[in-house]
Amino acid sequence: MTRAVPEPRKTLDPDRVAEWLARHPDFFVGREGLLQQLKVPHPEARGTTSLLERLVHDLRQRAEQAESRLEHLLESARHNEVQYRRIRALVLALVEAEDADALSQALATQMAEHFQVPAIALWCPDKLTDSEPLPPQPPRHVLDEHAGARLAALLDGRNSRCTRLSPTDWSRLLPHAQPLNQTGSCALARLTLGEPMGYLVLASSNPEHFRASMDTLFTEYVSDVLARLLLRHSRTSEQPSAHA
């Protein structure tokens, strides 16, 4: 008698099973006991766990991730609000300044108190200071040929830039900021309003405070505000006195 040869054991293609279950999401309705018997890989240890426990773990993880993203968004919103209030206070202080020297002093105070920038310099050409009765007071300076050439070299053809300051640069560009011969870093920006109106220097004795990779949008914004206000004060000082 010939023994029957057993047929090869057939196995289901996992991809086809997954495809079929995706097309029949109600398959487990009425088969809850089957769900409890299913085992899946444990997410944090070797071995398996029940499908329900794995689902609970995944849902808890998703909730934690959502909570973390929400906290990050809230923290960003709080940071943006603080920055908005600081910038608002800065602009209001600049607008309220009565003359160019008061403008530069207000800028220095706001930068030191709210933006951790301990030293600034505002370099303006002669045409903005000739009509003033007194020489400009630090941190405002008359832009001469040597300072202009060095500032232009540091900017290297750009409108704004963050870079390091050598001791020589510190002494030349921040002559009022002690101690002299100090290494550091700075954010530079041109003051322009149709034509060149000088330079703004925001400096720190920390060589890493203003890194080359930093964005300079804020520095450019401040320089745009300063250019307009300096031009306004220059025109005001040119007007004859009412008692003249």
From TrEMBL:
Q: Which InterPro entries match?
A: DUF484, GAF-like_dom_sf
Transmembrane stretches, start-end: none
Positions the record marks as coiled coil are: 49-80
Keyword presence, Coiled coil: yes
Cytoplasm recorded as keyword? no
Source domain of life is Bacteria
Keyword annotations for this protein?
Coiled coil
Do you know which Pfam families this protein is assigned to? DUF484 (PF04340)
- PANTHER family attached here? DUF484 DOMAIN-CONTAINING PROTEIN
What protein is this chain from? DUF484 family protein
Species: Candidatus Halomonas stercoripullorum
